[in-house]
Design a protein that fits this description.
CATH superfamily of the largest domain: Aldolase class I
CATH topology of the largest domain: TIM Barrel
Number of strands: 16
Strand content: 15-25%
Helix content: 25-40%
Structural class: alpha/beta
Number of domains: 2
Radius of gyration: 21 Å
Strand order of the largest sheet: 7-6-5-4-3-2-1-8
Number of helices: 11
Shape: globular
CATH architecture of the largest domain: Alpha-Beta Barrel
């Protein structure tokens, strides 16, 4: 299986934590279809921690909690598949999950078979309670071998928070995406700290092994399991724009059944999603200014993306000097651009800098082509 672009979907954890059940999953799947999220590219519905009973059955198999999931996991998988989407599940490489449910340590092959038999398409595999006498690379490689042995294509989402020199071994153990950070929360500080921590690592991300900067908090509005003050719309816009530029997987964390219209439009923005899903999967080129992270990015077909982010607490004029990314300042070449949020096409050709007015804590993203002027 080749995971050519960053996975997109929805995950239960950020909003619902342990408060999950069959009805929630079905309603969310339906909402993703009805609101156009499936058609925008979000294909995975991922059930995070707290889905099982706290004891295995007599044969050592995981058991879905019958109060939460009365019809079992296969029933949900069949329903989700009937809607043209895919099911994701959760486990952990320790004896317990982060919330104290059975983990997969020494049960990797029986658990992988459970997931495959139940029609699971994606496994998020966490890092809590991992044994200190076994290397993380060994634990994750073991589960990857177990998934392969099922014969079913299951995307392997490694979630070890960037520990034990993850970047040195993650590609070799078969991680299709890898959590490179601690948990995100619903605050602009968390968004900023996570993104800034990964700028130097973006070049290591690519097909079959994408840098996962954790799930989206866009639209949570200080409600749910990871509430921490909430964000303004402009801050959520920065969150989504930067995750798209960095080609992080896009896993929605808000309650999509009740999502605000402006957040829904942001999450479905075709221009931004196209940057995230660009088939060349090129890392960004940083051209930062003080407190104003600026990035350029190669896209397919001689197209480029540019992002200008304002970390300041007030509106600022921000620009990127094009010489910093290699463009000769002779006036012979320049960029013809459009605004990815508003759709505005600029008559001006940008030959020496890409600049704009950017609101506090906001981001503007532009896409266009390199053209010859003379």
């Amino acid at each position: 299986m080749i995971v050519r672009t960053p996975p997109m979907g929805w995950n239960t954890w950020n909003t619902f934590g342990e408060d999950i059940n069959e009805a929630l999953i079905i309603e969310t799947c339906d909402a993703m279809v009805e609101k156009g999220l499936r058609d925008a590219g979000y294909e995975y519905v991922v059930i995070d921690d707290c889905w099982s009973l706290k004891e295995r059955d007599a044969e050592g198999r995981l058991q879905a909690d019958p109060e939460k999931f009365p019809h079992g996991i296969k029933y949900l998988a069949d329903y989700i598949h009937s809607k043209g989407m895919k099911l994701g599940m959760y486990s952990c490489c320790g004896p317990l999950t982060c919330a104290g449910y059975p983990g997969s340590l020494d049960h990797e092959f029986i658990d992988a078979k459970f997931f495959a038999d139940n029609g699971v398409d994606y496994l998020k595999y966490d890092w809590c309670y991992h044994p200190t006498n076994l290397a993380g690379s060994t634990l994750y490689n073991r589960m990857k071998m177990a998934l392969n042995a099922t014969g079913r294509d299951i995307v392997f989402s490694v979630c070890n928070w960037g520990e034990e020199n993850l970047l040195d071994w993650i590609r070799s153990v078969g991680g299709d995406l890898y959590r490179s950070t601690g948990d995100i929360n619903d605050s602009f500080r968390s968004i900023r700290e996570i993104f800034d921590s990964q700028v130097d690592n973006f070049a290591l991300s690519g097909p079959n092994c994408f840098n996962d900067m954790d799930m989206l908090v866009c639209g949570m509005n200080n409600k749910g399991n990871v509430s921490a003050g909430g964000c303004t719309f402009e801050e959520y816009k920065t969150h989504f724009c930067l995750w798209c530029m960095a080609q992080s997987p896009l896993m929605i964390g808000c309650d999509v059944r009740n999502v605000d219209d402006d957040i829904l439009a942001l999450l479905k923005n075709r221009e931004l999603i196209a940057i995230n899903q660009d088939p060349e999967c090129r890392p960004v080129i940083p051209a930062p200014m003080h407190n104003h992270p600026c990035f350029a990015k190669h896209l397919t077909n001689n197209e480029y993306a540019f992002s200008l982010t304002n970390y300041d607490d007030e509106e600022s004029e921000i620009f990127m000097i094009l010489a910093d990314i290699g463009l000769p300042l002779t006036g012979e070449w320049g960029f013809k651009l459009r605004d990815c949020i508003t759709g505005e096409e600029f008559e001006k050709v940008f030959t020496d800098r890409v600049g704009a007015t950017v609101k506090a804590h906001s981001t503007r993203v532009f896409r266009g082509t390199l053209v010859r002027l003379r």
